[in-house]
Amino acid sequence: MKKKRGRRAWVLLGLLPFALLIIGFLLVPVLSMLTGSFMNDDGNAFSLEQYVTALTNAFYFKAIQNSVLISFFSSLAGIIIGALAAYSITRFSPAVRNRVLLMSNMTSNFAGIPLAFAYIILLGNNGIFTLLFHEWGWDIFAGFNLYSWSGLTLVYVYFQIPLAILLVYPSFYGIREQWREASYLLGASPAKFWITVGLPCIAPALLGTLGILFANAMGAYATAYALVGSNYNLLAVRISSLVTGDVVTRPQLGSALAVLLAVTSIAAVWINSMMTRKVAAFTAGPSESPQSKRKTRFLSTKRAPINKTSLSGRESA
Amino acid sequence: MTRKMGYHRILIGFLLVYLLLPLIATALYAFAGKWDHTILPETWTLDWFRQMSLDARFLESLWNSFYLCGISVLLSLVVMLPTVFIVTVYFPRWEFLFKSLVVLPYAIPGIVAAVGLIRAYSSGPIAISGTAYILIGAYFVAILPYMYQGLRNSMLTVDAPALLDAAEMLGVSKITAFRTVILPNILPGVTVSILLSFSVLFGEFVLTNMLVGGQIETVQIYLYKRLAESGHLASTIAILYFSFILLVSIGLTKIGNLMKGGLRL
Question: Where is each ABC transmembrane type-1 domain found (chain B) (predicted)?
Answer without folding.
Answer: 62-252
